C-alpha cells in the first residue's frame, strides 16, 4: 500500500490523486461512484482538493509542521487505499464487512468540508466558531449529496453518510471507515510532524499530549469492531491492523504512547 511513510510530503497533483482515487476503489464501489455524472465527480474531487489539512499542527508548533502538505482529497485517497489493502490482506473481514459500503461511506465522510463555509476543522481544541462550523457540517454534506441526480444513488449515499454521523458501535462498515479516518490522520503524518528526534522539550510535550488523545480516538472504533465481529479470526485481523499502525507510530513519536495502547488494547480486546 502506498502511504505517507513511502512518499514525500510535497502535495500530489489533482490529476494524480483523481486517478488514484478511482484505482483505490473495489470494482463495485467504483461502479457506484462512476454512476454519478462526471462533472459532479470532478466538482466534488476539486472541492476536496481545495481543503488543506494540518493547520492544527502549524498552530501548535509541531516539528516540521510547515512542511506538511495534505489536502482532503489526498486524505480520502490514502484512506481508500488503506481500506482496500486491509480487506485484501485480511479477506476474512469481507465476510462480515461490506467493502463497497465501507469505501463509499469513507469517501463521502468529508463531503461537508467541500462547502465553502465549512472547510477543515480540528478534531479537538476548537474555537467557539469552529464548534459552530463543525455542527453545520452535516447540513453542508446533505446539500452536496443532494446534487446527485440519480435518486437511488443519492439515497444510498445519504444513508451511508448518516450512518457515519450516527456512529453506531455495532455498524461494522462505519466502524471500519472511522478507524481508517483516524488512523490515516494519525499514522501517516507521523514521520514528519510527530518526529521527536531533534525536537524541543516543548514540542515533545505537545506531540505527546496530542498523541494520547488521537491514539485513544483511533483505537475506539477498532475496539468496537473486535467487540461485534462474530469470529476470532476476524477479530485477530483487526488487532493485526492496529498493531501494525502502532508499530509505525513507534518509529517516530514518543514510545510510551503506542506502547501503552498496545498493552491496554491487548488486554481490553
Task: Describe the structure in your own words.
By secondary structure, this protein is mostly helical. It has a single domain, classed as Hypothetical protein af1432. 66% of the residues lie in helices and 1% in strands. It has 13 helices and two strands; from the N terminus they run H-H-H-E-H-E-H-H-H-H-H-H-H-H-H. It has a two-stranded antiparallel ribbon with strand order 1-2. Helix 11 runs antiparallel to helix 12 and helix 12 packs antiparallel against helix 13. The longest helix is centred in the last third of the chain and has 28 residues. The radius of gyration is 18 Å and the shape is globular. The N terminus is likely disordered.
The global form is globular
List segments where confidence is low: pLDDT < 50 over at least 5 consecutive residues: 1-10
The CATH topology name reads Hypothetical protein af1432
Largest sheet: 2 strands, antiparallel
**In what order do the strands lie side by side in the largest sheet?**
1-2
Query: N-to-C SSE series?
Result: HHHEHEHHHHHHHHH
Radius of gyration using CA atoms only = 18 Å
Please give the number of β-strands.
Answer: 2
Summarize the structure.
With 269 residues, this protein is an all-alpha fold. It is built from 13 helices and 2 strands.
Layout of helices and strands:
Elements: H1 14-23, H2 27-33, H3 38-50, E1 52-53, H4 55-60, E2 70-71, H5 72-89, H6 99-108, H7 128-145, H8 151-166, H9 172-187, H10 190-193, H11 201-228, H12 232-250, H13 256-268
Antiparallel strand pairs: 1-2
Helix pairs in contact: 1-5, 2-6, 3-5, 5-6, 5-9, 6-8, 6-9, 7-8, 9-11, 11-12, 11-13, 12-13
